[in-house]
Task: structure prediction
Amino acid sequence: MYKIFETVDEVSLYTAQRLLEKIKAVPAAVMGLATGSTMEPVYAQLLSALQQMPIDVSQLITFNLDEYIGLNAQHPQSYNYYMYQHLFNQLKIPAQNVHLPDGLASNIETACQAYSHAIENMGGLDLQLLGIGSNGHIGFNEPHTCFASRTHVVELSEQTRIDNGRFFTEKSEVPTHAITMGIQDILRAKEIILVATGRNKTDIMAQLFNSNIDEALPASALKQHHNLTIVLDREAAALLPEQAFKSAV
Ligand code: GLP
Result:
């Protein structure tokens, strides 16, 4: 289903409300969370709504999608740092309920397996929030990642390192590898919300709309999910047919 709004504000408010509804309905919900500039206004809206109408988040459990390998939690570009800056410093979830992939794990393969197991042990993700890379990656699952993949280490594509270079002083500082939930971990979520805004996402959203389910386009895996909402602003949706604007496609 597509939900298309005029502005980023409306997209973020709608998405934050969906998260809130989930927390209200299932106080011990297991939430898969994403990073990236798209999510900043979503988390800001969520925090502002919670300020106006506080609800109990003490049972909430979170699993983040991905993390750069080699950056520690204090590094301003690590996703761990991002999550505390934009959400966890204000949202009082017990520390043991927060899960972030460890990009500094000494045995990274074991850490990857443990991460997918931990999600399963919690009963699986109730809701997975996703952004999308300009090459169609979800989490850090780059094009041609196997759709059966579980949490694993990836070598970042040139496109992703260029896109994410905007957050670093120099592109050479962008890590070459990352740890990410696999596509199978994502697909097992009971509900998925993918959010994309702005001109940088126009082309990939059109490609996604028109594509078959194909490992060359990681986000196309989501087309087999029974409870997917794609939330877009008008810019990201600019090349979509009218059909997407009107209905539950
Ligand atoms: C990064 C993250 C993704 C995110 C994507 C889009 O590479 N690994 O999880 O969805 O970028 O980010 P942005 O929202 O900044 O465009």
Notes: The longest helix spans residues 8-25. The chain is about 35% helix and 15% strand.
